[in-house]
Design a protein that fits this description.
It is a single chain. By secondary structure, the chain is α+β, with helices and mostly antiparallel strands. It has a single domain, classed as Sortase, Chain: A (Beta Barrel). Helices cover 24% and strands 21% of the residues. The strands form two sheets. Strands 3-4-5-6-9-10-8-7 form an eight-stranded mixed β-barrel. Strand 9 and strand 10 form a beta hairpin. The protein is globular, with a radius of gyration of 21 Å. The protein starts with a helix and ends with a strand.
Length: 271
């Protein structure tokens, strides 16, 4: 009797494991198919969606501070128009050649900053989640640093391939990131790659996730200096006041609450 019960328990455990693995790969395949369909819909199956500004789209004014010249008038890039029709929360698309990173970037506007941790572009529950922009960042009047978060999936999905940048040789062959917001295209050159963590209130350390829009040149220089000092290797790339940065952040399991971070600076428009 005990042997039969043990066999039954073993069978149920095995069934649960196979079910989990099956669901995991189903979710992964669904994510890959969804991204491929989105890219095709944007007319950019092999590249980062962008296109030319569409004057038929609604204009957005990048508000200026009091006393400054009027802000730029921005138009949605044509490739993003069909994507915005499906989900107004898309704010851009990011691609890193030689990795699986080729995804839309979302930004929650419903007050739930963690919504896209476990929801996909179609707003379905998905353990892969989506890549998403910190809700304190802005692509209309761009903040100095745009911070994008994503899961470190074992399959390589989302930011699962990001820790390849722990290797200097990988960096040398993959120095450029393409991130196009819905309003403008951009090529970004990797400036730093480092391990960090989410700090407790009492901890002392550079909180890269709070380095978003420094008030002055001194604070900007201090932030860049911290990033460069933490970098695993010297990239030879630096940033000065007025440069725009993008920070990619994912989980890292080398320490409790660990994070792996890649920072790049804008060097020009995407071709």
């Amino acid at each position: 009797m005990k042997r039969n019960i043990a066999r039954l328990i073993f069978f149920l455990i095995a069934l649960g494991c196979f079910g989990y693995v099956g669901w995991y790969y189903y979710d992964l395949k669904r994510t890959e198919n969804d991204v491929s369909a989105l890219s095709s819909r944007a007319g950019s199956d092999a590249s980062t969606p962008g296109g030319k500004p569409s004057k038929d789209s609604e204009a957005v004014s990048a508000e200026s501070e009091e006393g400054e010249e009027p802000g730029r008038v921005l138009y949605v890039l044509s490739d993003f128009e069909p994507l915005l029709e499906k989900n107004q929360n898309i704010i851009g698309w990011i691609t890193i050649d030689g990795t699986k990173v080729n995804y839309p970037v979302m930004q929650s506007v419903n007050g739930d900053s963690n919504y896209y941790l476990d929801h996909n572009f179609d707003q379905q529950e998905d353990k892969n989640g989506s890549l998403f922009l910190d809700d304190r960042c802005d692509v209309i009047k761009p903040t100095a640093n745009l911070i994008i978060y994503g899961h470190h999936m074992r399959s390589g999905a989302m930011f699962g391939d990001l820790d390849n940048y722990k290797s200097e040789s990988f960096f040398r062959d993959h120095q450029y990131i393409r991130f196009n917001s819905i309003y403008e295209t951009g090529v970004w050159q990797v400036m730093a790659a480092f391990e960090s963590k989410v700090y407790a209130d009492t901890d002392i350390g550079f909180r890269y996730y709070d380095f978003i829009d420094p008030d002055n040149e001194k604070d900007f220089k201090a932030g860049v200096k911290n990033m460069k000092a933490l970098s695993i290797y010297d990239t030879g790339v630096d940033a000065v006041w007025g440069d725009r940065l993008i920070t990619l952040s994912t989980c890292d399991y080398e320490q409790d609450n660990g994070r792996f971070v890649v920072v790049a600076k804008l060097i020009g428009e995407a071709g």
